[in-house]
Amino acid sequence: MAKTKHLIVFGTRPEAIKMAPLVKEFLKNNLHFETKVCVTAQHREMLDQVLEFFEITPDFDLDLMKPNQNLYNLTAEIIVQLKEVLEEFKPDYVYVHGDTSTTMATSIAAFYSGAKVCHVEAGLRTHNKWSPFPEEINRQVTGRIADIHFAPTETSKANLLLENINKESVVITGNTVIDALMESVEKVTEKPSKTIQDLEKTLGKKDIILVTGHRRENHGDGFEKICKALKTIAIQKPELLIVYPVHLNPKVKEPVNRILGEISNIMLIDPLAYQDFIWMMNRSKLIITDSGGVQEEAPSLGKPVLVMRDTTERPEAVDAGTVILVGTNTELIVSETLDLLNNTERFKHMSTLHNPYGDGKACERIVNHIQSLES
Ligand code: UD1
Ligand code: UDP
């Protein structure tokens, strides 16, 4: 029987981390599948860090990132440039991940080409089209187009069924972020990088609060308030060190450097390579973030997380008690952080290990499902 053709497309750091184990799983099954990887390079440096760590060389690289890019051009460019790739490779199946512009635009282009669209990390919802913006609509549009929905949890499957998605097309797999994490934690322990060795020396024995942030709906006023909160925490807890790998988006870098640049116990650094970031999460006492992926990784590492968002499409960790939502309210970020640091019982409760997002076998389930359709 002729091999079917599979195109895996991603563009940003989190998609790359979560699709890397899927690329490997498809390549392992090369007797059945012809697999190619296309990166839109909606991100450049932050994507390349991940490609290097997972040793993935894309077959197609659209190299689209522009400094301070806007949603209109990015979306249009992805659709236009994918046409050539789709016409050249003629995939039977196209795989997209999550909720970025790459995800939505690729699913539209793949639909135009007639390929089956497979949505990995399907069914996450806040039901608020402005939060996260534009991700909630990106994932809803992708959900409408997709032929196969790989939902990470029961909750995400239930969201899809509420939208009248045919239940036969939904498969619960767990989240591939856990596949990536399990594989990478081993590598980090075996061979710490030079960055980790340097960080170990700089951090010494200090307690660390790790911070990340980038969401579009927090740009402007939201980031001003977040930075003010971090500054207050740093001043009130001089014995602590706040480590903040700053996202490369200029709309993030500007307020962060302006407000936090000169504070002695705040360390602003470039985005860490994935393996170094995992080490840093493990080394931290608590994490303050607006990231989706970090919310999923932290429960597996037993790290309490304050999420600087008003809504989350990842209720599982909130229900498990590892994650609390604090929005971008300066007072609330400060009071919740200080309370958590001072209240041992509460801290212990939030540090309990949980695994609501998967068991590390999501990619195997995805590939097995596709194989079952083909046999
Ligand atoms: C994007 C996704 C968001 C995801 C996030 C992960 C959309 C609309 N947004 O947001 O869903 O959570 O990635 O980080 O799809 N930049 C660099 N180098 C890089 C990456 C970014 O310089 O490697 C700068 C560029 O100036 C770029 C800007 O950041 O124009 C914004 O990148 P973009 O992908 O549009 O938005 P993110 O905020 O990164
Ligand atoms: N991450 C990383 N280096 C960093 C910060 C985060 O490799 O300096 C990883 C993190 O482990 C997680 C992913 O990037 O897997 C999250 O990406 P981001 O927060 O940019 O996007 P989101 O998950 O919110 O879409």
TrEMBL record:
<dbReference type="InterPro" id="IPR029767">
    <property type="entry name" value="WecB-like"/>
</dbReference>
<dbReference type="Pfam" id="PF02350">
    <property type="entry name" value="Epimerase_2"/>
</dbReference>
<keyword id="KW-0413">Isomerase</keyword>
<feature type="domain" description="UDP-N-acetylglucosamine 2-epimerase">
    <location>
        <begin position="27"/>
        <end position="370"/>
    </location>
</feature>
<protein>
    <recommendedName>
        <fullName>UDP-N-acetylglucosamine 2-epimerase (non-hydrolyzing)</fullName>
        <ecNumber>5.1.3.14</ecNumber>
    </recommendedName>
</protein>
<dbReference type="GO" id="GO:0008761">
    <property type="term" value="F:UDP-N-acetylglucosamine 2-epimerase activity"/>
</dbReference>
<comment type="similarity">
    <text>Belongs to the UDP-N-acetylglucosamine 2-epimerase family.</text>
</comment>
<dbReference type="InterPro" id="IPR003331">
    <property type="entry name" value="UDP_GlcNAc_Epimerase_2_dom"/>
</dbReference>
